[in-house]
Every structure is written in C-alpha cells, then in structure tokens.
Amino acid sequence: MADTGPATAPLPNEVADYLEHLAKERDMSPNTVRAYGRDLGEFVAYLNRHYGGASWSWQGVDRLAMRGFLGQLAKRGLAKRSMARTLSAVRSFYRYLHRNEIVDANPARAVGAPRLEKHLPGYLDRAQIDLLFQAAEARAMEGSFVDVRNLAILELFYSTGMRLSELQGLNRGDLDMITQQVKVRGKGRKERIIPVGDHAVRALRNYEAKRDELLRGLATRADRMAMFLAKTGKRIGVRAVQKAVTRFLDQIDEDAGLTVHSLRHSFATHLLDAGADLRAVQELLGHASISTTQIYTHTSVERLKQVYQKAHPRA
C-alpha cells in the first residue's frame, strides 16, 4: 500500500511534553511549535507502521529505523529542505529525551541530513528598486487609503529588511518616528531595533494620517493597536500584504518570480554591496547565525562576476 502521509493518531506523552517545553521554556512561536508537532507526528506514524503495530520504545528506535523514515519521506517526493527540517525536529526531540534520561543515545545523530542545493536569493537591482517605488508613489499620489498604505509597507520592507510576519505583526507603539527606529519581534520572539530611513518615515507619516482618518470613521470596531490595517479597521492579513507587494513586483518583472522576501534580500544585498559590515547586516536581519547572512555575500560576488565578465577585456 502506498504511503499517504502521517496518521492523525494522538501524540505520545513524551512528544506532547516536548512541544510544551518548546512553547513555555524555549518560548518558540506557535507556528514553530505546530511545525515541530507535524514533523514528530509524522515520525510517530512511521514508527507505528515500521514496527507493525507492535509495542516500541524511544530507546529501541535504531539507525535503520531512522534511515527508513527518511526513505519514506523521499518516496513521498518531499523536497530535501523539508526532509532536513523534519530530521532536525527528530534530532532535537531526541536531545530532549536524552537530557531527561529517557534514552541513552540519539539515533538521529547517526543519520546524515540530505545535502541541500544552495540557491542564491532573488533580489531587485537598484534600477528595479527605483521603478518599484516610482510605481508605488504614483499610485499613492491618488490619495486612497489602500495605495498610501501599500507605499508605506513597501518602504518599510526595503528600509528595514524585516520579515513578512514581522511587518504584519507590528503595533503602532513599535514605531518611533522621532528617533526613526522600529522594534521588531522576530523568530523565537527575539526583539531587535532597526533604523528606519527618511523615505520610509515620510511614507509612514502620510499613511498615519490616512489611518487616523479611517479610525475616526470606524469608532470602536477597529484594531487601534495594529500598525497596518485593512479598510475594515482590522489588522491586515499576511495574504493581503503578499498580494499588495507582489502586484507591484510583477509590474517590474513578471517572470522573475519575485516575492515579498525579495525585498529583504534586496535590503541585505544592497547594504553589503555598499560595504556594510557582515555582522551588522546579520544583526539587522535578526539571523541567529552569521552563516545564514553569508549567502548575501555570494549574491554580491555573483553580481561582481557578471560585471567583470562584461567589462574586463580579457575576462
């Protein structure tokens, strides 16, 4: 019978305890905890099939069972990145079991993660950035709430390099227009402060005037804490932000597959192109590891290689 994916059987107590540990002691976001729960639920479903319904223990799971689990994921056509993430969740869970003396060893450590292909992130060059903001500014000049808001969203993305979830979750109190900085809650709910540029501040002030006007007309039904609102007065949704941004990006290059995240890539690439310190860019992006930030140096090097090939007479 073909493997159709994880069953929906109740999770063992150890898994439930581990997820509670992630949420309460490690302070991981609800989305991250749910992702770990899905991955571990899939692992448990596999073990139930692997042992043919017989009783099994965490201690008894060996390297062969782990390899079989990865084989099943590959057979289902999962991307290597998804397989690596699932294996990482299992490894982390076994470290928790080992610390709590439930198992003597971690069988997942003996299984190598799939080798990931390194993709250079898509980004906009300087000319494309200029075109993007020319288009957004022209729309905002018409004065509608949505167009003024969308320009402010674009400016803030490019000015700060923040993630989509970070921008969508911003509260009005997180932005300080006087000192031109924003407080962002990133992955693991870690907070960081990011400077906000003059262009973004100007767009945000114009949006605030429209936001205040909207709130006055909605009385008590609106979300007054949220920075970015839908026309209903509720906090704007993630999908609405994506739709607003990609509509402009498609005008720049419809075939390039640019996404909201491309603005974050552009922010980092342009800083490094201009000589910014890698550690500073790491801090601005909220990366836990410098190796994550280093991919943007590859982007810069690739761009320099292209310039070299075109310009050098003996390239």
Notes on the structure:
The chain is mainly alpha-helical and 315 residues long. It folds into 2 domains: 13-110, DNA polymerase, domain 1; 126-311, Intergrase catalytic core (hpI Integrase, Chain A, Orthogonal Bundle), CATH 1.10.443.10. Helix content is 57%, strand content 4%. The protein is built from 13 helices and 3 strands. A 3-stranded antiparallel sheet has the order 1-2-3, with no helix packed on it. A hairpin with a 4-residue loop joins strand 1 (175-176) and strand 2 (181-185). Helix 1 (13-24) packs antiparallel against helix 2 (30-50), helix 2 crosses helix 4 and helix 10 (260-273) packs across helix 13. The longest helix is centred in the N-terminal third of the chain and has 21 residues, at 30-50. The chain starts with 12 loop residues before the first helix and ends with a helix.
Features of the shown structure:
315 residues; mainly alpha; DNA polymerase, domain 1; hpI Integrase, Chain A; 2 domains; 3-stranded antiparallel beta sheet; globular; disordered N terminus
What's the structural blueprint in terms of helices and strands?
Blueprint: H1 13-24, H2 30-50, H3 63-75, H4 80-99, H5 126-140, H6 145-160, H7 164-168, E1 175-176, E2 181-185, E3 191-195, H8 198-218, H9 238-252, H10 260-273, H11 278-285, H12 290-293, H13 295-311
Antiparallel strand pairs: 1-2, 2-3
Strand order of the main beta sheet, please? 1-2-3
Tell me the major beta sheet: 3 strands, antiparallel
* Radius of gyration over C-alpha positions, nearest whole angstrom: 24 Å
> H/E element string?
HHHHHHHEEEHHHHHH
Query: What CATH architecture of the largest domain do you see?
Result: Orthogonal Bundle
The poorly predicted ranges are: 1-7
